[in-house]
Amino acid sequence: MASRRLCTVSAFAFFCLFSGSVLAQLQIHHVDVGQADGAVVITPGGKVILFDVGQDMKRKDCIRPVSYLEQLGVKQIDALFVSHYHSDHIECIPDVLKQFPLKGPAYDRGGSYQSVPYDNYVAAVKSHRKTARVGDVFTFDKSPDQVVISVYEVNGKSKDDDVSTTNENDLSLATILSYGQFREDISGDLSGENTSNYNDVETPVAAQVGRIDVYKVHHHCSTHSTNAQWVKETTPTVAVISVGNGNSYKHPGQTCLDRLRADPALKKAYWTEHGSGGEPKTGLDAVVGNVEIDVPKGGATYTVTASGKTDTYQSAAPAPTDVGSTAAPTSAPGPKGYAWSKRPSVAVYHYEDCAFVANISPNNLEKGDTPPRGKKLHKGCPIHVK
Fold first, then answer.
1. How much is the pTM?
2. Do 303 and 169 share a structural domain?
3. Cα separation, 331 vs 193, whole angstroms
4. How would you label 167-179 residue by residue, b for 16+ Cβ within 10 Å and e otherwise?
5. Is 383 within a domain?
6. Cα dihedral 373, 377, 207, 343 sign
7. Which residue in 62, 166, 182, 247 could disulfide with 92, CB within 3.0 to 4.6 Å?
8. Would 182 be classed as within a structural domain?
9. DSSP run (H or E) holding 311
10. 69-101 per-position pLDDT tens digit
């Protein structure tokens, strides 16, 4: 059977995808759907994966996600991931699937919810519906070009913790998408503080998730999301904030923005719209509409294209293997962590028990429990010289 050709014409570029053929890159599209959420992933092999398809809470229509998929040339959906059952995350799923049939599974948190959008969602996905569980790892495409989606939290439960919560936001299905060295967190509306309405489900998983390259900011950058511990442990390079103009929730929240901006690793935050909360900061924030992320083979670098401009970033160090990294460490870590030189010109880091650490001047020596950004593990490390 001949491969199905998918051609894209957008403000960014013209390109064609061939279903079943290996492409040069992974594509992640964060679609401007107003005060809602929706992302489209196209694997190098041409698989189309959706993460939530919500309805803008102000415009009350599904024109944007449907038209965006049309301009991508999509003909079908190969997999769907639903974070939780609020309308701004699921209400446009029936409209999308009516035009682009779901051929694979629809993963969600299981259980039920009392709302018309939820009932319509269940009716739309039919027998494709599957319950995702902590530790599930879903792979797309063939090795060594696999795209991996790993579930690290759902219904308040993670590998090591079980937060008792009934808040629909905090029950969100939380995932890491990885491709080579590249990692992005896409996790719905998780919260990071305990209040009368919300539960802190970010802190228990922050260290487990570890460093990420792109952070699709939890809960539209609500003041209750993205706590300091989460930012400290994940240190994203790029943030994507899905937010709508004139929203009644004051998203993005100023305190959420402040916590993101306190992270020196953050290079830029891309907002789909201006919102109605904190103001964008010149040089760090950009209100851009749709956001397209392209990750070439290996994932060592990636680009973010929005409003006709393309920015290039280096991927962070390889991630912990228990949350879905496809890049295995060269060898087992040393007993005490890592060591490296402060000097930018020194491109390598070491396990702390490596003999070469002794060659680093005490004035330049730094140590930590996680590898430094921008440096590569010394080949053969740890090396024990007698």
1. 0.79
2. yes
3. 37
4. bbbbbbbbbbbbb
5. no
6. negative
7. 62
8. yes
9. strand 309-314
10. 999 999 999 999 999 999 999 999 999 999 999
